[in-house]
Design brief:
Elements: H1 17-27, H2 30-46, E1 54-59, E2 75-80, E3 89-90, E4 103-109, H3 118-128, E5 129-140, H4 145-148, H5 167-176, E6 179-187, H6 195-201, H7 203-212, E7 219-226, E8 248-251, E9 256-259
Parallel strand pairs: 1-2, 1-4, 2-3, 4-5
Antiparallel strand pairs: 5-7, 6-7, 8-9
């Protein structure tokens, strides 16, 4: 752990409070609760074989719900994004209070959706992860019913409380940072509008999407691993004899090397 910084960091988050509240309110609905249960099952499966000393949960749901209930990582921390939350640490996803190469697993729930600096969030995750460390990203899928709800901000994009990014775009960002994608999953295929009435009559969409592993769910789960390349210098395959040897000089007139003869001593 970072001994230079206290774990009780009281800095304010750059995540818009309106976006955080909107995200948490959706998870309180029937559709959100069903999606959360499915996401929990997927994250538990992805993290079942991940071992290590330290794990961190950050993002909107950190402190509200724990995805690492069945994790084998020894010590687990949750990063609260708003003051007064029931979390072991209070800080920001853009400035994680951990030292370089210190964490074995990071679970970030909607940390990219509700931030103004998604690239900085990913850079911080890459910084604190140990080589071969794992990260599980949870975010809203723009190619879903949840993404369609964002169309009401078509004429005023700045009014969006959250910004959804496709898995293709997030994977490109991660590849630049040296991450390798292990698995991509999707959850929550029911409509997010219409209330409980429409949700109960569209539950068959969840079974259909899960059976055929469709990528049109309201939430995506992306499991990646930090890769560090070890550069090994390659030695020449054969030894090259030097052109010049001690006691030889270059004869410009002849264009070849000749031995330097000692002068006659009279």
């Amino acid at each position: 752990m970072n001994k230079e910084k206290s774990l009780n960091v009281t800095s304010t988050t750059s995540l818009p409070p309106a976006g955080v509240k909107l995200c948490r309110d959706w998870y309180a609905t029937s559709a959100g609760q069903a999606t959360l249960a499915r996401v929990q099952s997927i994250v538990s499966r992805m993290s079942a074989d991940i071992f290590g000393y330290y794990a961190l949960e950050t993002g909107v749901l950190a402190g509200q719900h724990s995805f690492l209930q069945e994790s084998r990582v020894a010590s687990q921390f949750s990063l609260g994004i708003l003051p007064g939350e029931q979390a072991s640490i209070v800080g920001t996803p853009e400035q994680l209070p951990f030292a370089l190469n210190n964490l074995d697993l990071v679970v970030a729930s909607h940390a990219l959706d509700c931030t103004r600096s998604p690239h900085q969030v990913l850079r911080e995750i890459e910084r604190v992860l140990v080589p071969e460390g794992h990260c599980i990203l949870i975010g809203f899928n723009p190619m879903s019913f949840k993404g369609l709800a964002q169309l009401r901000y078509w004429h005023n994009p700045k009014a969006r409380p959250c910004q959804f990014y496709s898995t293709f775009r997030v994977r490109e960002w991660l590849s630049v940072l040296g991450f390798e994608v292990c698995e991509t999953a999707s959850a929550g295929f029911c409509p997010v509008f219409g209330g409980d009435y429409l949700f109960k009559r569209a539950r068959w969409l969840d079974h259909l999407g899960s059976q055929y592993r469709l990528m049109t769910g309201n939430v995506y789960i992306l499991h990646v691993q930090k890769k560090v390349s070890n550069m090994t210098p390659l030695l020449p395959s054969r030894k090259v004899k030097p052109l010049l040897r001690p006691g030889m000089i270059v004869n410009p007139g002849a264009g070849r090397a000749s031995r330097k003869e000692p002068k006659d001593v009279k």
